[in-house]
Amino acid sequence: MAKIEGSIYCEKCNSEIKWCYLVRQHLGSARILEVDTIPDDFILLSSNPTQKEVKVRCKKCDSLNKIRLLKE
Predict the structure, then answer these.
(1) Which is more confident, 61 or 33?
(2) Which residues lie closer than 8 Å to 50 by C-beta, 6 or more apart?
(3) Which letter does DSSP use for residue 69 in this model?
(4) Is there a contact between 14 and 60 (Cβ–Cβ < 8 Å)?
(5) Which end of the chain lies in a sparser environment, N or C, as judged by fewer CB atoms within 10 Å?
(6) How far apart are CA 30 and CA 2, in angstroms?
């Protein structure tokens, strides 16, 4: 699977929030058997941040933050 990774800083406590989104691929793809590991300090997103706004909570202060990536 391909993945999109990034990080933002919490709006409240300014701590770094690392995130990752796994991009689904077609079954015919040669990469289907590859396994991507996600480090423990990353938040795995369930929604694609290039398609919509995604909200995540800061692990340090529990504040809600928004991730929104623009399509290129």
Answers:
(1) 61
(2) 4, 69, 70, 71
(3) P
(4) no
(5) C
(6) 12
d(CA 20, CA 5): 4
pLDDT mean over 64-72: 79
Rounded CA gap, 15 and 58, in Å? 8
SS (H, E, C) 23-46: ECCCCCCHHHHCCCCCCCCEEECC
Structure tokens at 28: 């015919």
Q: What are 15-58's pLDDT values in tens digits?
A: 999 999 988 776 665 555 556 677 888 999 888 888 888 999 99
Tokens 């480090």 sit at which residue?
39
